[in-house]
């Protein structure tokens, strides 16, 4: 069993990720950006949930996800909320008046030190096409909230990989963290 006091060995240090060994435990961490990503829960004024589709190299497949991005990857001192609004606009062409961090937790606590923040954005305005930056090829989907779960199941049946955090995001769109429904 590894402990907090065991020495850290950097087994690999890449441009974006590093591989760490602490005792007998091996895991990854982000080489930059503080190890925190924001998942953006965005519902348009037309009551559509904003999803993104993109090819993910590790999976060798197209995925359906909620818009997301690394916190502090552009500006080291950028807040979670500002990072979320910036990523939302870059990926989807929507901007938001307000962003609220709902929950922060580990992505895969057995293999990575990375954490994710679920961020609810409100006051959405369409300001562009989205599609990501020059290295990304993102397709934006706006799906009626009432049909979102069925649409995701359909996409799963079509062979898309679905980020499991989608289901937590859908729940948070519909509920307060204490479980009571949003009205």
TrEMBL record:
CDD domains given in the database record: NUDIX_ADPRase_Nudt5_UGPPase_Nudt14
* Record-linked Pfam families: NUDIX
**What superkingdom does the record give?**
Bacteria
Q: Which residues form the Nudix hydrolase domain?
A: 33-166
Which GO MF terms are attached to this record? Answer: hydrolase activity
* Biological process, per Gene Ontology: nucleoside phosphate metabolic process; ribose phosphate metabolic process
Q: What UniProt keywords are attached to this protein's entry?
A: Hydrolase
Against InterPro entries, the record matches this protein to: NUDIX_hydrolase-like_dom_sf, NUDIX_hydrolase_dom
Q: Which PROSITE patterns match?
A: NUDIX
Q: What is this protein called?
A: ADP-ribose pyrophosphatase
